[in-house]
Amino acid sequence: MIPFLRSNHIRLIWALLGGILALQSHAQSVSIQGKVTSATDQSALPGINVLVKNTSTGTTTNADGKFEINAESNAVLVFSAIGYITQELEVKGRSQINVQLSDDTRQLNELIVVGYGTQKKRDLTGAVNSLDSKDFNKGVQTSVDQLIAGRSAGVQVTQSSSEPGGGVTIRIRGANSINANNEPLYVIDGLPVNNASVVPNSTLVNEQAPRNPLNALNPNDIESVEILKDASATAIYGSRGANGVILITTKKGTKGKLNVNYSLSGAVSEVTKRVPMLNAQQYMALLNDLRADQKQAPEFTAEQIAAVGKGTYWQDEIFKKGYLQNHQLSFSGGQDKFTYYASLNYLDQKGVVISSGIKKYVGRVNLNYTGDKFKFGLNLNSSQVKDDFVPNGVSVNEGAGVINTAIFQDPTLTLKNPNGTWTQTQIVNLENPVGLANEVSDFATTNRTFASVFAEYYFLPELSAKINFGTDRQDSRRDIFTSRLTKRAEGTKGIASVLTSNASNNLVEFTARYSKALNKDNQLEILGGYTYQEFVVSSLSAGAQNFPLDALGTDNLAAGAQTTFSLGSGRTKNQLLSYLGRVNYNLLDKYLLTASIRADGSSRFGDNKKYGIFPSVALGWRIKDELFLKNINTITDLKLRASYGVTGNQDIGSYKSLVLLGPQGQAIFDGAPYVGISTTQLPNPDLKWETTTQLDIGLDFSLFANRLSGSIDYFHKQTKDLLLQLPIPRTTGFTTTFKNVGGLKNTGFEFALTSINVTAPFTWRSSLNFSVVKNEVTDLGALPYILGGSAGFTNDFTIIRKGDPLNAYYGYVVDGVFQQGEDIAKSAQPLARPGEYKYRDVNKDGTINSADRTILGSPFPDFTYGLNNDFTYGAFNLSFFFQGVQGNKLFNLNRTESENPISFRRNRLAESYTDRWTPTNPTNANSSGVPVAVSYTSNVNSRAVENASYLRLKSVQLTYNFPSARWRHIKGLQVYLTGQNLFTITKYTGYDPEVSAFGTSNVRADYNAFPLSRTYTAGVSINF
Question: Which segment of the chain is annotated as a signal peptide (predicted)?
Answer without folding.
Answer: 1-27
